[in-house]
Amino acid sequence: MLSQVFCPQEPCLLYSGDLRGNLVAAGTVFRTVLVWNAESGDILKKLAGHQGVIFDVTWLGDSCLTSVSDDRSVRVWSSEGSAEHLEQTAEMYGHTARIWKVMPLQNFRVRSLLVTVCENATCRVWDASTGKQIHCLSGHLGKNVRTLAVE
């Protein structure tokens, strides 16, 4: 079990992270997603584009990940090869407040669907292949929807 992962080459404050094999993707308070090798500590890619703190990152496959931020955007980063070649392939807007969590819905490789939850208590379903919002779910009473679980 991995209990600590060090990234000695980049001083950062991590807000979120996800592990896939020996790759770590981590959202920072400095508006970047860092991808590094957990065994060597080498940074493989620094992904920039968000304008706020990265609240969640989730691997969608070996060469695809998604991130959400307090800038109200959902971003997808993909590569035909390794993590060193990740580039932004989708940028989606629609939430009116900070986005806390993102997860793939069903089998992402088949349908490219993501679901996000937001500070304003809404959940949205997105088609990452088109960048379009498919559905907005509202009705939660209270201030926030902070997390979600999907199968």
- Biggest sheet strand line-up: 1-2-3-4
What is the H level of CATH, i.e. the homologous superfamily? YVTN repeat-like/Quinoprotein amine dehydrogenase
Rg from C-alpha positions? Answer: 15 Å
Q: Largest beta sheet, briefly?
A: 4 strands, antiparallel
CATH architecture identity: 7 Propeller
State which percent range the strand residues make up.
over 45%
Structural class: mainly beta
CATH class: Mainly Beta
CATH topology value:
Methylamine Dehydrogenase, Chain H
Order of helices and strands: EEEEEEEEEHEEE
Overall tally of structural domains:
1
The total strand number stands at 12
Large-scale geometry: globular
> pLDDT average, as an integer?
84
Q: Which residues form runs of ≥5 with pLDDT under 50?
A: none
The separation of the N and C termini measures 24 Å
The helix fraction, in percent, is under 10%
Please specify the SSE layout and strand pairing.
Elements: E1 14-20, E2 23-28, E3 32-37, E4 43-48, E5 54-61, E6 64-69, E7 73-78, E8 87-93, E9 99-105, H1 108-111, E10 113-118, E11 123-127, E12 132-137
Antiparallel strand pairs: 1-2, 2-3, 3-4, 5-6, 6-7, 7-8, 9-10, 10-11, 11-12
